[in-house]
Amino acid sequence: MASWQTYVDDQLMAAGCMYAAIYGHDGSKWASSPGFDISNEECEVLVEALVNSNLGKISGSGFTIATQKYTFTRGEVDDEEGNPSYAQGRCKEEGKSAQGVIIYATTQAFVIGVHDPQYADGASFGSVNTDAGRVADYLMELGF
Description:
Elements: H1 5-13, E1 19-24, E2 29-32, H2 40-51, H3 56-59, E3 63-65, E4 68-76, E5 85-91, E6 100-105, E7 109-115, H4 125-141
InterPro entries: PFN, PFN_euk, PFN_sf, Profilin_CS
Organism: Gracilariopsis chorda
Pfam families: Profilin
């Protein structure tokens, strides 16, 4: 397997992510920024929502990534063009409402980026979203 850490460091973190990771659908860590750990239970919720095409699992109650709770704001599954499924969310914690998360589901993995303008060095959530999408597209091209 390729060194996915390079993609987290050079693509996602460099794009302005506060935290970033690539995790397998089974909850295995492929790569992540320091201290950004996603539990098996959190991955199971993402599998249900994004892989099993059940956004209802997270649309009402939200979801948790690395113990941080997020409100579901947007997502798409079953794209007719073969694009990866995705979900976006905003932090529920008071004082952190500007913090957002983007999660892309590829065939075998999740590409996750957390954006907070305070730590983004001028990068927008849109640019983080675009770069995370590129990493997800690349993983899918490789069969992951």
